[in-house]
Amino acid sequence: MSALPYFDAEAIVAAVPMPAAIELLREAFRDLGELHPRRQVSLGPSDDLLMMPAVAPSGIGVKIVTVVSDNPSRGLPLIHGHYLFCDRETGVPLATLDGSALTALRTPAASALATDVLARSDVRTLGIFGTGVQARGHIEAVLAVRPGIESVVVCGRTPESSETFAAGVDAGGRTASAASADEVAACDVVCGCTSAAEPVIPTAAVRPGTHVNLVGSYSTARREVDDDLVATTSVFVDDREAAAEESGELIHAASGSWSFDRIVGDLAELASGRAGRRNDDEVTLFKSVGLAVEDVVVAAAVVARS
């Protein structure tokens, strides 16, 4: 048997650029079937092994991901991933893909899908918490659906990391600069792209009409916002069941006065127009824990187009 083709990060993005990934997910979530659950194994207090199987009309796939918190200090990426894609009818393996690159594409694409539905049409500022791969991807993805944004501000762990990131990121010709947490939280669209264990987005600075995307937390060990912000926003999720099991922010808020019954909609409802923003002053929050079906949809397109 010949070796399976391998698609690295460059090949994945060449086959499915960010705007195409957003539309693939929009179409997939309009007619979404059963979601297959994530399998998560702890490697320690702050490290994880994730195994994410999924089946879709376009194929079968499984992603294996490791998240090791000390890796950045070793000069290594925080996340490593590998993806196996198989034919839907026969189960025959067709290709392997860079799982980390797949995550770097589909996670911002899902946030952009939510942003396209939930963010006001007149937004002008984008605030990013984080300076890693997801922060970079979210800038590209949000600008794809809100090209009227004029400036991007960034808040990382340190002023130095924020400045370095802002100086090197591609903001499509727009101004990108480092800023304080309050200044970033005051933007029209705010994205949490961190691995924070405690909230980093100051609730008091978030203004009426803001749209917030959160992607950093996928377990109770991590959360990017506090209970007060959850309680005062209209909450949307990628999937209700997955959010109840894995969203650190929402699980923490549900231990108090907030309830999962208050979730307004999920990605399927957003993509199909069954849920959305109700008025210009509403603060909307999209919480994503990452779904295996997103991987298989994008992986299938990469294989088909290459």
Walk me through what this model shows:
The chain has 306 residues and is an alpha/beta fold. It has two domains: 6-103 and 293-305, 2-Layer Sandwich (ornithine cyclodeaminase, domain 1), CATH 3.30.1780; 111-291, NAD(P)-binding Rossmann-like Domain (Rossmann fold), CATH 3.40.50.720. 35% of the residues lie in helices and 23% in strands. α5 links the parallel β8 and β9. α2 crosses α3 (99-118), α2 crosses α11 (292-305) and α3 packs parallel to α4. The radius of gyration is 18 Å and the shape is globular.
Any descriptors?
ornithine cyclodeaminase, domain 1, globular, Rossmann fold, 2 domains, alpha/beta, 306 residues
Low-confidence stretches: none
Report the count of strand segments: 14
Order of SSEs: EHHEEEEEHEHEHEHEEHEHHEHEH
Q: Assign the CATH class of the largest domain.
A: Alpha Beta
How helix-rich are the residues, as a percent range? 25-40%
Classification by helices and strands = alpha/beta
Please describe the topology of this protein.
Blueprint: E1 6-7, H1 9-15, H2 18-30, E2 39-42, E3 48-56, E4 59-67, E5 79-86, E6 93-98, H3 99-118, E7 125-129, H4 133-145, E8 151-155, H5 159-168, E9 175-178, H6 181-185, E10 189-192, E11 211-214, H7 227-231, E12 234-237, H8 240-246, H9 248-254, E13 265-266, H10 267-271, E14 284-287, H11 292-305
Give the gist of this structure.
By secondary structure, the chain is an alpha/beta fold.
